[in-house]
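Worked problem 6 (solution included).
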Amino acid sequence: MTRRERQEHIDKGLLLPLMEEFYTIQGEGYHKGTAAYFVRIGGCDVGCHWCDVKESWLAELHPPTETEKIVANAVAYSKTIVVTGGEPLMWDMGPLTEQLKAKQVQTHIETSGAYKLSGTWDWICLSPKK
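Solution. The predicted structure is:
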């Protein structure tokens, strides 16, 4: 894939800067205690000094990963998928959530609200920032 094609795939949400993904128990909020698969997307330009995941800020540090691969990994572990960051809405979440919904899973997002909502979500955790 050429650099231009890669950037086009990123712009369309077909590749996302994947920082980490893991299966765990939701530890906070309304769904506390629910088994979930977390997908942490890299990139955040909000820059809150209290952020506990500053290593997520630079998207360039995290490999652009095909949404199909992210979905395959996630649905193998849970029926509840939590997309977090960084700030995942810096990217087009449409392709990722379309593929997740096709697998009949619950889609949750944790966002600062700094960007326009994209994707189809069953639960939105809004944590407003500066």
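Discussion: DSSP finds three helices and six strands in the chain.
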